[in-house]
């Protein structure tokens, strides 16, 4: 399921939507969180619409959840809030890009915020510098999910240690489910990794390394077809001595025992 | 006269969706839709209508209504309210409130306030109330920015959400030029009607194409939508619709 890939330890999640699903963006993100068992009390959404005109709306969210003035830190199970922001197009309708970046950064730095979700549809960004703003959001994000087509998506993930992975998946989408399968033949997202299949136990995967040790099918065929020099291709019919004399040898073709009357 | 085109667009019901957007491509005229919807709403008993005239003045809609078989003058002041921006500007000139920055308010903010005032005074007495905005692109000509127009539509959508029986219908011409504004306004509503020109040229029997997109259900990950395409021809006193392929070239 897509939620296995998106609801992770990465804090700032940017979803770039090329499919014009902006109207269901909050529902989409909320469903991902619910699938991963995130409680409704940890999911907080900034109000959309006309209220975005007022800076007080943003400050109220920061004060209440980022600074955690709700008192939730007393709960031992509290792990942080999941904040769903309005779409980038709606934010840009009322606030400047600098304000949006600053707000995003404040949420990112807050210890009481576990994850921040931002949805961006390029065909809705009403700003002359939309490309630059989207690039800035990608820079801030630790996980970038790009919904490319109905069947394809890509996921760029930045680990805390600095490693970056970029993987592509095929997807099957229905109204209530979003299944993904890696395009490089890996196991579909969401499959259990605790009980490997019998086939996997018999043929363990080689340890990942920077050297390519395994042979492809083509390479195996080519190796088998190769004939080495001086390699015998067939068995001789009987024992035989093959002597090639050098230039200094005094080689006599005649049989030395020919004059014997034996 | 106009029943067939409203039936094709799904706008013949008594209760319309909360927000409907009409996107009109360049070089094609979708004004007939506004006149058709206006006539249909006026014919419904105790249904209020507010017409915001930006592209044409009120007299144009009266003339169009007479051709389609209804008289707007009978309903004006009763079930029909009119905000005639063009006539106000023509009458008052540069002193018109639409051209001056009254009390620090922009044009779109003043317009929202006027619409809200009309709705609040008339909505309670009506079984349904429809606000028709013709045409958003004129706001650009009057000095509004794209963000202001987007905020204006967001305010209208919020107004429609506050009131269950309220429907807002907006029209934006040259939607291919104002693509981003068109996308942002269309996403606010459940129904989008695109008035498109014929791609292969012009034809005597057909004026253009209507593409009607309707969101039936919003799921968690995808929406259930329907798309329907019809051809139309605007005649002197009626509007005809055809299914694609119905009209052929007669040799």
Spatial order of strands in the largest sheet of chain B: 3-2-4-5-1-6-7-8-9
Provide the succession of SSEs of chain A: HEHEHEHHEHEEEEHH
Determine the N-to-C terminus distance of chain A.
95 Å
Helix content of chain A: 25-40%
Q: What Rg of chain A is obtained from the alpha carbons, in whole angstroms?
A: 34 Å
Number of helices of chain A: 8
For the record, the count of structural domains of chain B works out to 1
Shape of chain B: globular
How many beta-strand segments of chain B? 9
**Main pleated sheet of chain A:** 8 strands, mixed
Largest sheet of chain B: 9 strands, mixed
What is the terminal separation of chain B in angstroms?
A: 29 Å
Shape of chain A: rod-shaped
By CATH, the architecture of chain B is named 3-Layer(aba) Sandwich
- Quote the beta fraction of chain A: 15-25%
Mean pLDDT across every amino acid position of chain B: 90
Structural class of chain A, by secondary structure, is alpha/beta
- Biggest interface, which chains? A-B, 27 and 23 residues
GO molecular function, one term (chain B): insulin receptor binding
Protein name (chain B): Elongator complex protein 6
Family (chain B): Belongs to the ELP6 family.
Pfam families (chain B): ELP6 (PF09807)
Account of the 3D structure:
The complex is a heterodimer of chains A (262) and B (251). By secondary structure, chain A is an alpha/beta fold. Chain A has a domain at 2-70 and 77-182: 3-Layer(aba) Sandwich (Rossmann fold), CATH 3.40.50.300. Chain A is built from eight helices and eight strands. With 251 residues, chain B is α/β, with parallel strands linked by helices. Helices cover 35% and strands 26% of the residues of chain B. Chain B has nine helices and nine strands. Chain B has helices at residues 3-9, 31-43, 58-68, 72-75, 85-92, 107-122, 137-141, 146-162, 179-186; strands at 19-24, 47-53, 80-84, 128-134, 166-172, 191-196, 208-218, 223-234, 239-242. A nine-stranded mixed β-sheet of chain B has the order 3-2-4-5-1-6-7-8-9, with helices on both faces. At the A-B interface, helix 2 and helix 4 of A face helix 8, helix 9 and strand 7 of B.
């Amino acid at each position: 399921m897509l939620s296995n890939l998106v609801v992770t330890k990465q804090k700032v999640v940017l979803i770039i939507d090329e499919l014009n699903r902006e109207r269901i963006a909050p529902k989409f993100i909320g469903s991902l969180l619910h699938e991963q068992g995130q409680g409704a009390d940890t999911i907080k959404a900034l109000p959309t619409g006309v209220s975005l005109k007022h800076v007080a709306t943003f400050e109220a969210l920061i004060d209440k959840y980022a600074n955690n003035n709700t008192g939730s830190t007393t709960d031992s199970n509290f792990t942080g809030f999941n904040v769903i922001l309005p779409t980038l197009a709606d934010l840009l309708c009322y606030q400047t890009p600098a304000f949006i970046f600053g707000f995003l950064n404040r949420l990112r730095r807050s210890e009481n915020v576990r994850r921040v979700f931002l949805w961006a549809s390029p065909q809705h960004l009403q700003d002359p510098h939309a490309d630059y703003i989207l690039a800035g959001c990608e820079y801030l994000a630790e996980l970038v999910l790009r919904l490319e087509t109905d069947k394809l998506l890509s996921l760029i993930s930045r680990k805390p240690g600095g490693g970056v992975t970029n993987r592509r998946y095929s997807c099957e989408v229905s109204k209530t489910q979003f299944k993904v399968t890696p395009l490089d033949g890996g196991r579909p997202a969401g499959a259990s990794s605790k009980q490997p299949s019998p086939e996997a136990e018999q043929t363990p995967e080689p340890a990942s390394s920077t050297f390519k040790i395994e042979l492809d099918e083509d390479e195996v065929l080519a190796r088998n077809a190769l004939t080495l020099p001086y390699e015998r291709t067939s068995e001789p019919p009987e024992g035989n001595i093959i002597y090639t004399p050098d230039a200094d040898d005094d080689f006599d073709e005649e049989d030395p025992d020919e004059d014997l009357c034996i | 006269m106009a029943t067939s085109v409203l039936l094709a667009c799904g706008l013949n019901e008594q209760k319309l969706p909360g927000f409907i957007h009409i996107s009109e491509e360049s070089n094609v005229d979708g004004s007939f839709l506004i006149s058709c919807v206006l006539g249909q709403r006026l014919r419904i008993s105790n249904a209020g209508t507010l017409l915001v005239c930006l592209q044409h003045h009120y007299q144009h809609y009266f003339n169009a209504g007479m051709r389609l078989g209804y008289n707007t003058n009978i309903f004006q002041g009763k079930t029909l309210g009119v905000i005639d921006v063009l006539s106000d500007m023509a009458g008052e000139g540069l002193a018109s409130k639409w051209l001056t920055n009254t009390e620090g308010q922009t044009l779109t903010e003043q317009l929202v306030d006027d619409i809200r005032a009309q709705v609040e005074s008339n909505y309670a007495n009506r079984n349904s109330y429809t606000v028709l905005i013709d045409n958003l692109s004129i706001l650009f000509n009057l000095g509004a920015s794209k963000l202001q127009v987007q905020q204006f539509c967001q305010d209208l959508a919020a107004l429609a959400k506050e009131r269950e029986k309220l429907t807002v219908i907006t029209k934006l011409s040259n939607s291919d030029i104002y693509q981003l504004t068109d996308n942002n306004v269309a996403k606010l509503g459940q129904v989008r009607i695109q008035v498109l020109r014929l791609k292969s040229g012009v034809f005597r029997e057909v004026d253009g194409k209507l593409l009607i997109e309707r969101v039936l259900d919003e799921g968690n990950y995808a929406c259930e939508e329907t798309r329907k395409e019809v051809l139309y021809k605007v005649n002197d006193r009626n509007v005809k619709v055809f299914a694609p392929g119905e009209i052929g070239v007669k040799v």
